[in-house]
Amino acid sequence: MVEDARRIAPAAGRNREPILAALRDLLPPSGLVLEVASGTGEHCAHFAAALPALVFQPSDPDAEARASIDAWCAGRSNIRPALALDAAAGAWPLAAAAAVLCINMIHIAPWSATPGLLRGAARLLPPGAPLILYGPYIQDGVATAPSNLDFDASLRARNPAWGLRRLEQVADAAAAAGFGAPAVTPMPANNLLVAFRRG
Asked: Residue 3: what pLDDT?
């Protein structure tokens, strides 16, 4: 019996439809969508099935994650094999993309991954193209949900370099990388979908 490499993230099953609904208004009608930190691969498989005119390029720095991604995405003609990609790296194994998508990464990574992601996306995207981020954030002047405060504390207990990021700090780093102001969409479970456009 061949071992099934697919991993399962329960949150992916819960949030994939709301994210997909938002992506329909943000992604271009065709072209290559790079997903950074694809994790299990469940999101990529779901989005590619619903958006057949787009080609998806999943990626993850972890070899076991890439095996899961490829297992979830097997047989789908509009998904490329997963790439080894570290968001913080100075060079990425891809020359261009029509959009970049990153779900639930920046709070489970050192801060250096965030400006790395923004700089890398800026290198790949043409003017006006979207970089779309999803996850929980802390916002100036907005009360943070108790569940997000608990989540932040648990992340920092696991790794002091992790934790929820201030949206304003991410927007400042995005502006430094050449992106415009974010369009922010509230999502279920106290998450945000944040879309930047390449300047």
From this structure: 60
Q: What is the pTM of this model?
A: 0.96
Structural domains present in the chain: 10-197 (3.40.50.150)
Q: How far is CA 32 from CA 5, 103, 182, in A?
A: 25, 17, 21
The residues that bridge with 186 in the sheet, in sequence order, are 192
Rounded CA-CA distance 7/164 in Å is 24
Q: E-strand spans in the chain?
A: 31-36, 54-58, 99-103, 130-135, 137-138, 165-166, 183-187, 191-197
Going by C-beta distance under 8 Å and a sequence separation of 6 or more, which residues neighbour residue 77? none
Q: What is the Cα–Cα distance from 88 to 112, expressed in whole angstroms?
A: 6
Listed as ranges, residues in the chain with pLDDT below 50 are 1-2
Give residue for tokens 């819960």: 14
Give me 189's structure tokens: 């479970």
Measured distance between the N- and C-terminal CA atoms of the chain, rounded to whole angstroms: 51
Q: Give which of 133, 114, 140, 123 is closest to 182, Cα–Cα.
A: 133
CA distances (Å), origin 58, targets 2, 15, 169, 173? 23, 18, 26, 24
How many angstroms separate the Cα of 79 from the Cα of each of 31, 34, 60, 73?
12, 10, 14, 7
| Residue found under tokens 């913080």 | 88
Pairing assessment for the beta strands 31-36 and 191-197 based on DSSP bridges: unpaired
